[in-house]
Specification:
This protein is an alpha/beta fold and 156 residues long. It has two domains: 91 residues, Ubiquitin-like (UB roll) (Roll); 57 residues, no CATH class. The chain is 26% helix and 21% strand. It contains four helices and eight strands; from the N terminus they run ββαβαβββαββα. It has a five-stranded mixed β-sheet, covered by helices on one side. A three-stranded mixed β-sheet has the order 6-7-8, with helices on one face.
Length: 156
């Protein structure tokens, strides 16, 4: 068994060669969403490659399709459920903020300043930046993204 070391938000964790990053996250109690159950159909387990892209498997066709659909506006985004560690030198960062659990939760925050960046739970899209006022437009953005996700998800 070959052991690989991955740096996740500055924390060094060991991983077995060819293990998915989602399994590494689970093994080390690193909390990420996994709404589709690790099928690569949502972006709730996304992360960002800082260094070591060549030490990860190439994106799967499913991952590429899902990432095309999302509105994650930062380069280096990958899905933990689809990405396998195959070498050392991997440095990744998890999205900062909190995933909004439901439209009702977001609706309750309208008119308040977001304490953390609010992220769509399925697409990974930033709905409201930390410190910004939560407006009704954020709720509409969430509903729109959810309906597009549902339509995309039902076609598979």
């Amino acid at each position: 068994m070959t052991t690989i070391t991955i740096s996740i938000d500055g924390k060094q964790v060991p991983a077995e060669h060819n293990s998915t990053l989602l399994s590494v996250f689970r093994e080390h109690d690193i909390l990420v969403n996994q709404i589709c159950g690790g099928q690569g159909m949502c972006a709730s387990c996304h992360f960002f490659i800082i260094n070591g892209a060549d030490a990860l498997t190439a994106p799967t066709q499913q991952e590429q399709m899902t990432l095309q659909f999302t509105k994650i506006d930062r380069p280096g985004a990958r899905l933990a459920c689809q990405t396998r560690a195959i070498g050392d030198g991997i440095v990744i960062e998890l999205p900062t903020g909190t995933f909004v659990e439901s439209e009702q939760d977001l609706e309750q925050e309208i008119g308040k300043k977001a304490k953390q960046t609010l992220i769509h739970p399925m697409t990974g899209e930033v709905l409201v930046e930390a410190g910004k006022l939560v407006m009704r437009s954020a709720l509409e953005k969430m509903k729109d993204a959810s309906s597009k996700f549902a339509a995309n998800f039902s076609r598979k």
